[in-house]
Amino acid sequence: MKIFTARINKKMLIIPVILLTAVCVLTVFFTKNRITKNPSQETKSSTENMTEKTETTELTEGAETAKHMKDKNGNDYIPKSNVTVYLTFDDGPSKNTPQILALLEKYGIGATFFVINGQYNDYMKDIANSKSVLALHSYSHKYPEIYSSEKAFLDDLEKIHDLVKSETGVDTKIIRFPGGSSNTISRKYCRGIMTNLVKDVEEEGFVYFDWNCDSGDAEGRELSAEKQIKKATQYSKNAENIVILMHDINTYGVSLEALSGIIDFYQSEGFDFGVITENSPLVHHKVNN
Q: At 247, phi and psi to the nearest 5?
């Protein structure tokens, strides 16, 4: 009888031990799962917070950029359209460059200057230190020379590139062909050269831009500001990007009155203003030689 009772007592002791062990195992199991899940939840929460901060920062930066833009009355200008206008000036710097930069600064915008070697190279620094950007046009700008051969053009391009870099430290790869990629005058000096050059410059790491709107300010006769504005505001109604050709030269070229009128017009259309970069939407003409 004592033996039987002892056996029962032993069995009764074993059962609680088993239950206690099971509880401990389950507790460890669920605790481990919570520890494993929590980091991922925290990571997810952290990621969401970072995304929200990034979006907020981008919106804030965008708002600040817009606030820097001004209208003719000096009020903050915020674009109401996705269309971007690129003001571009060929053949500078000139004696007029400081006045052009001052007008652009008044509006809080920049432009793209396709420069050549000339008398006012010091103004390249002023362009580089403004909201505008430097781009390459030509060193000599002499058509018979630069379009005599592919090598002649590429040598000239290297010279203007090196000049801009030595004057300003800017290593720009943005170019515009004298006369545009569609020019036919090059045919007089070398048949088919443009067909090859548009490929050559890209292989050398350059990006070329033409235009799809022209102020007509270098037609060989002086145009009134009214006519320059009229020509520079004739754009395709379904255009997403408007690249306006103007000239920064000592004689003729865009007048300050015309430039102000052009900016006012595109602001009234609710368009943005930008500067050309290597990643800007390409505007290319049809090559005719």
A: -130, 140
